[in-house]
Amino acid sequence: MTAATPGSVLRPITAFLDEALSQPDLHHRILSAALGRPPFPDPAALQALSLLSQALDSSAATSPARSSPSALRAAEKLLLSLPSRSPLSVLLLSLTHALHRRPAAAALVLLDLFALDPALSREDVAPSVFEDLFLPHLLPVLHWFADQRARILSTDSPSPAPAAAAVEDDGWSVESSAAVSLLSRMSGGQAAELKKLERGYEDVLDANSRVYAEYLKEVLESADEAWQARGPPQLILGRFDGEGGEIEEGGEEEEESEEAIGLRSGQRRYNPLWADADQSIDFSSRHGGKSQNKFAKLPSLYPQRVPIHLLIRQPSSDGRDGAANLISDSGPAFSCNDNSEDFSSEIDTDLKEKNIVQALLHRNKIQHQSLEEASAPYTCSQSPPMDDSDSILAPGKQTPPKDFICPITSHIFDDPVTLETGQTYERRAIQEWLDRGKSTCPITRQKLHSTQLPKTNYVLKRLIASWQEQNPYSTPIRMENPPSKNVQELNTLSHLPSPTSVITQASTDGITADLRIAISHLCTSEILGESEMAVLQIERFWRESRMEPEILAALSKPAVINGFVEILFNSVNPQVLRVTVFLLSELASKDKSVVQTLTRVDSDVECMVALFKKGLVEAVVLIYLLTPPWQSLIEMDTLEALMMTIKRDEEDLLGMCVKPRTASIFILGQILRREDHKSAPTIVGMLISERVVERVIPSLEADLVEEQITVAGILLRCMKEDGYCRNIIADKAQLAPLLESFAMVSDVDQFEIIQFLSELVKLNRRRFNEQLLHIIKNEGVFSTMHTLLVYLQSALQDQSPVVAGLLLQLDLLVEPRKVSVYCEEAIDALISCLRNPDFPSAQLLAAETILSLQGSFSSSGKPLARAIVLKYAGMNKSYRALMRAEQSTSVPEDSEDNLEEEKAANDWERKMAYALASHEFGLLFEALADGLKSGNTGIFSACLVSAAWLTHMLSLLPDTGIRGAARVCLLKQFVSILKSARHTDDKALAMLALRSFMHDPEGLHDLTLHIKDILKALRELKKSTLLAHEMRKLLSGGQDSSIDIWNHKELVQVDCSTHGEVLAVICFKNKIFSGHSDGTIKVWEGNENLLHPVHETREHSKAVTSLAVSNSGEKLYSGSLDKTVRVWSVQDRQIHCVEIHDMKDPVHNLTVANTIACFIPHGAGVKVLSWNGGYKLLNPSKHVRCLALVQGKLYCGCHDGSIQEIDLATGTFGTIQSGNRKLLGKANPVHAVQVHDGLLYAASTSLDGAAVKIWSASNYSLVGSISPTVEVRSMAISTELIYLGSKTGVVEIWSKNKLIRVGTLQTGTNSKVQCMAVDADAELLIVATSDGNIQAWGLT
After folding, report:
1. Which residues form a coiled coil (predicted)?
2. What DSSP character marks residue 228?
3. Which long-range contacts (CB under 8 A, 24 or more apart) does 820-827 make?
4. Would you say residue 364 has pLDDT above 70?
5. What does the DSSP assignment read for 161-177?
6. pLDDT, tens only, 335-350
7. Over 60: is that where the pLDDT of 1019 sits?
8. How confident is the model over 820-849, as pLDDT tens digits?
9. Contact 368, 299 (CB under 8 A)
10. How many whole angstroms separate alpha carbon 926 and alpha carbon 970?
11. Burial environment of residue 577 by CB neighbours within 10 A (0 to 12, 13 to 18, 19 or more)
């Protein structure tokens, strides 16, 4: 006996539990049986039974998943809390687990029931589980019992009276007479011995069932493949001696009479003594109706016993023939003449053993009735096991006993002959068999000593005639299970049958019989080769038979399906595996119950996936039909096999219900079409790199509409994840079949087609897009535009924008018309979605759709409307950055192709802008204005670009009054964005829109109401775009510049003289830091409460000469004359010292980068400190006066007027300006150095007429100079202005671009301006003087 596997244990138990849950009669019966079994169940178990009753009934009506979860949980809790187990509680717990869809737990508990009460389990509760799992292991016990029983029956016994005399004419049949005859031959001693044997037999079954149940539980509970390490347990056979008596257990039992043994009427389980009614017995009640036993439908609780005529070894003592002789295999009835030998007594030992095993494995699904309803006719014919449940007759008809049927012709015998092997055949059939050169028995395959047929078996013929007289309306059906396909194994090559051949006439009727034999071999054979041959036979029957419904029903049973699965697990024959997968696929495609059977155990699906990955491409069809979760398919790594199947496109030689390539596409579509699939980008990358996408595209022309839709979904996902494949798809796709199928599919599939087409027309060439749009418009059975319009009118909110966008593009292929229902409906749908805040996703989709209608796309299909509109606004830098980000390539400007493409793009843009803007006299602008108020960043951004684009296009189109409508809706919104937007590009878009309003006098007048805010914003944008300069000129009345624009107002002044001079000041993120000569550092408010002190600290012992802030703003660095540099942590409004570095020298002009700090020591040179430790002295030959550190380069302004550049990475020096030692005995030091926008500004003494010189930091060339009227001691630079602080308290303001003075600030003191700082917005100037004052000036 081979070791059990978890799958082989789970399958029959799960099948039984599913059947119990789905059939109310079955679960009522098994619960009743368990309820009546001692010990009496606990009250808690009865309460659990009450809770589960409703759940069980609802599971039969619907599905277990819809049962009440609260009732199930309560019942489970009660059952788990029981102190002791009863059969009822164990059975209830198993059913509870089954309702919860826990097959493993349910199986373990059901095996507990077999261990707790084996007899109840195998007889009343789960006989099918016993026969499938336990019976094969217990075959030796059954062999032993049969031998002992045969020994008892073979002993001498009194001769019975003739059966005919013992039977009155009251309706009893000849079969009943045979049963009574057997009783009359049995002695009292035989009966008592049989009774003791029966009790011992049951004890052995119980003991072995318990042990084997524990073994099966261990198999299920074993981790991984640990179950393989242990085989099945040894059988327990030590309770009996060789004579059948008990050795250890059991006392004297009360003997029963023959009548007590044989005639136990009303006992539910039938006695094995009467189980010798083999496959030839028909226990159907002749009278029918209510006289039938109420347990008639119950399966046999014991394996089928060996027929009496096989077990009796000795001939009848009186040698009589007739009905009594039928019970023995010897006697005159079996002689072909008076001198013939008794073949039955010399049957080959192997043949007898084979027949006994067949009988033991056979299920006796018959009615257990009283002895009066039993019948047992026996003939010489030894048929293999048959299913009596198939022999139930229609009302008014009787099935002939199966021993009356010829195994070749499947009809009642007319001239029966019995061969020397004991098998009986119709004379004409066996004669034809022999005439074809055969010399063996068709059933046993034994060699015949003589091919001369014996005389007719008249005994059997008389019995048949008698039965036909009693049953004139019987149906002469064929035998359900002929012995073997060998009966019809004809050598057609050498012996072609004649048209009137008996065997040929029977072949059609016998095909189902041969199929049943093949099924039997598939399900029960322990020989792999025999099971494989059965699979091939079943395939032939499936293809050739015209009785497909009958064969489908036979092959769809769970036992047969499990047999096929076992072939998949064990066979290594490629052809057998392919045929098995073919058959399972055919069955699964026609019967959903097959899918349920195959998906009960996960290992079955895993086996099929493993075969598919090993190259069995047909397995993918079965995997597709089973529809496993897409997550599990990814986890099992099926993608590579799916891609290979799609790429190869091998010919389907088996004629599968679905081609393997098509099934692979369906599975791939199931994976990719999930919106929440996070691995989709990776999978799409694999499809593109392996060129699978190109092999999928032709399936758009597939015959199956479902395949077309699936491919459209796959390609849609590919374009969304990697838009660069769009060009390949557009180049190779044939859209006509897909468009023709559009009207035939569901709404969901129609929308997927629309999405696919919408994505496809996002190519980076306008002319190609229009060619595709023409194909979409003109192909198809019906008008595509009309179909889209109908769909749009009933579309969901999140579908409408996509449909409307495609419909509007198709409508614009022709010249714009005054009235177009398609255009009107499409734009109305877009506006409706954009103005509906209840559906934010639809709002965003509508805004993005309008944006994409501009018509420009990158190579990946991303809209380029934002980049194009920024280009219109003169933001060339932003335009180039966006184009690089989208990796959009352009054709050389002077190429003919580019000129045509540009013309096509411009024409499309004008037509689309006119259609959108003119709809309902600018109704779209109202919707865009609402979108600009949205808090959703995506909606705001898309609406801003669309509004700026359409407003700009109005200045290029003839004015029909729409420009005024747009101004009314959007002007205030654009001014607000221009004033407060954080991103420069957003300001530029608003500026472009406002510029279009300046073409009208009314628009220019409206703009003057906001001139202050507009001019301020234009001042910032002037450096980025020439359009800002042009607008400033228009707003300032045509003047090129206006000095009064630069107005500064003193906001606040504070006196810090108690802390001495203010030597350093810096602004950062609404905070102002100041350093004082007494070592104090102060923190001030930099916003509303300007220069309001919030914190101060004095940890330096001497003057704080310089301050610096890290890029993140989290650290403040201070340099002091006390020879230290302190690092401060900036938290909210306070600073805390976290590090102190000893510099060994007083610190002047501290500048800080990421990992280094530079400062001017007391003597010559510059010290460079690494925060990790260590420093070095640079430029030791110069006395440095000021420093600037920018991008790893240090700029030094020296005491002798020279300026050097030091590359800190390489240590190289460069001289920007050569200094002079002295001029007229006076020094000419550089007082301030700053670097801004690649220019170096250096302030020194105005000896040569230019106190401030401007150098190029890249090539050291002088690009400009300033000649202030004051002696400069400090300097600050903003985006537009240069501030020069003097030693007399005056600050001069110069234009950075034109290098002209635009203003002067008076600090109100004659003290030197020590330092200045400008905030990030360039709207606040901080001035610190030597008398301890700090002033704040605002730019207005």
Report:
1. none
2. G
3. 821/789, 822/785, 822/788, 822/789, 823/915, 823/919, 824/919, 825/789, 825/792, 825/793, 826/792, 827/915, 827/916, 827/919, 827/924
4. no
5. PPTTTT--SSS--HHHH
6. 333 333 333 333 343 4
7. yes
8. 888 999 999 999 999 999 999 999 999 999
9. no
10. 8
11. buried
Return the residue matching tokens 């015949």: 448
Q: How far apart are CA 539 and CA 1044, in angstroms?
A: 99
**DSSP single-letter state for residue 617:** T
- C-alpha–C-alpha distance, residues 908 and 904, integer Å: 6
CA gap 1127, 749 in Å, rounded: 65
Q: What DSSP string runs through 729-760?
A: HHHH---HHHHHHGGGS-HHHHHHHHHHHHHH
- In which region does residue 981 sit, left (phi positive, over 0), alpha (psi from -120 to 50) or beta (all else)? beta
Q: At residue 959, does pLDDT exceed 80?
A: no
Q: Residue 426: in which H helix or E strand, if any?
A: strand 424-426
Beta bridge partners of residue 863, listed in sequence order? 857
- Flag whether pLDDT at 63 surpasses 50: no
**What's the DSSP call for residue 1219?**
-
Q: 146: number of CA atoms within 13 Å, CB side?
A: 28
Q: Distance (Å, rounded) from C-alpha 1186 to C-alpha 911?
A: 62
CA nearest to 621, candidates 576, 664, 680, 562: 664
1076 forms bridges with which residues in the sheet? 1062
Q: What rounded mean pLDDT belongs to the chain? A: 77
Can you name the residues that pair with 1117 across neighbouring β-strands? 1108, 1127
Q: What is the pLDDT of residues 573-616, one digit of tens each?
A: 999 999 999 999 989 888 888 888 888 777 778 888 899 889 89
Strand order of the β-sheet with 1239-1244 is 1230-1236, 1239-1244, 1252-1256, 1262-1266
Q: 743 or 1093: which carries more pLDDT confidence?
A: 1093
Q: Minimum mean pLDDT among 55-59, 773-777, 1084-1088, 1177-1181: which range? A: 55-59
Q: What CA–CA distance (Å, rounded) separates 1212 from 1178?
A: 10
Question: What are 261's two structure tokens?
Answer: 């043994």
Least confident of 11-20, 615-624, 932-941, 1031-1040: 1031-1040
pLDDT: which is higher, 1338 or 37: 1338
1262-1266/1313-1318 β-pairing: unpaired
Please, are residues 1312 and 1273 in contact by the beta-carbon 8 Å criterion? yes
| Radius of gyration for the alpha carbons in the chain, expressed in angstroms and rounded | 50
1285 strand-pairing partners: 1274, 1291
Q: Where are the alpha helices (DSSP H) in 476-599?
A: 502-524, 528-544, 548-555, 558-570, 574-590, 592-598
Euclidean distance between CA atoms 270 and 609, whole angstroms: 46
- What does the buried/exposed string (b/e) look like for 741-760 if buried means 16 or more CB atoms within 10 Å of the residue's CB? bbeebeeebbbbbbbbbbbb
pLDDT at 447: 84
Task: Give the full edge-to-edge strand order of the sheet including 1193-1198.
Answer: 1184-1190, 1193-1198, 1203-1207, 1213-1217
Pair 1251, 1272: CB distance under 8 Å: yes
> What is the crossing angle of helices 923-932 and 896-918, to 10°?
90
Q: What angle do CA 393, 398, 402 make, to 5 degrees?
A: 95
Q: Indicate the pTM of the whole model.
A: 0.51
Residues, the chain, total? 1340
Look up residue 331 and give its DSSP letter: S
Strand order in the sheet with 1281-1286: 1272-1277, 1281-1286, 1290-1295, 1301-1306
Peptide bond into 39 cis (omega under 30): yes
Bridge partners, residue 1193, by sequence: 1190, 1207
Count Cβ atoms below 10 Å from residue 1093 Cβ, excluding itself.
Answer: 15
Confidence check: pLDDT of 666 > 50: yes
Structure token digits, residue 1299: 């290098």
Least confident interval from 75-79, 81-85, 641-645, 1045-1049:
1045-1049
